[in-house]
């Protein structure tokens, strides 16, 4: 993390963050103003975006790289259903996330394998919305061959029977750069991309991002 809270807020607001809020923009404005005057204003903690106020589908286009806007892959029309799992977020539109790591040391480790390691270290997986905020305010973090999954967000699945516990979709959201092939289109080559990977698969070029719990 290289930018202060104030610098991140400037970027988010200049790119139209308030325009993509679901509702209650007054609460978003008030929270942003509070962060600007709080003791933490000079911190380099990440400004987190709460999924109750912002849709991931609306945040993705705010990412930019090489002058190209970000996008959601065509086969992830349910991206807004991926929500924080296993921990609670502050009940504010914007909040601070500390000690964020891209998880380069967890490349070639599946989310299924990484989660116990992250938890044992007293940390948690980064949420999709936090990953998007990071990519929006620090575009360089979505680096070719050094991108990341956001396993803190999962999509709950309907249960066959009540009382069976929680079941999850087998996908996990991830952020990387488009190759310009297939349905992405050549004009999107190099653009930041919100896609998904299988929960049980390993990827040599995708880390697993985490933060202080």
The helix tally amounts to 5
The spatial strand order of the largest sheet comes to: 4-13-12-8-14
Radius of gyration: 17 Å
Question: What is the N-to-C succession of helices and strands?
Answer: HHEHEEEEEHEHEEEEEEEE
Structural class: alpha+beta
Q: Whole-Å distance between the termini?
A: 17 Å
Shape descriptor: globular
The stretches of 5 or more residues where confidence is low (pLDDT under 50) are none
Describe the structure.
It is built from five helices and 15 strands. With 213 residues, the protein is an alpha+beta fold. The protein has a domain at 56-89 and 99-212. The strands form six sheets. It has a five-stranded mixed beta sheet with strand order 4-13-12-8-14, with helices on one face. Strands 1-6 form a two-stranded antiparallel sheet.
What are the main properties of this structure?
single chain; 213 residues; alpha+beta; five-stranded mixed sheet; two-stranded antiparallel sheet; 5 helices; 15 strands; 22% helix; globular
What's the quick description here?
The protein is of the alpha+beta class and 213 residues long.
Topology:
Elements: H1 5-14, H2 25-37, E1 46-49, H3 56-59, E2 64-65, E3 68-69, E4 71-72, E5 83-84, E6 94-97, H4 111-120, E7 123-125, H5 128-137, E8 147-149, E9 153-154, E10 156-157, E11 167-168, E12 171-177, E13 192-198, E14 206-208, E15 210-212
Parallel strand pairs: 4-13, 8-14
Antiparallel strand pairs: 1-6, 2-3, 5-9, 7-15, 8-12, 10-11, 12-13
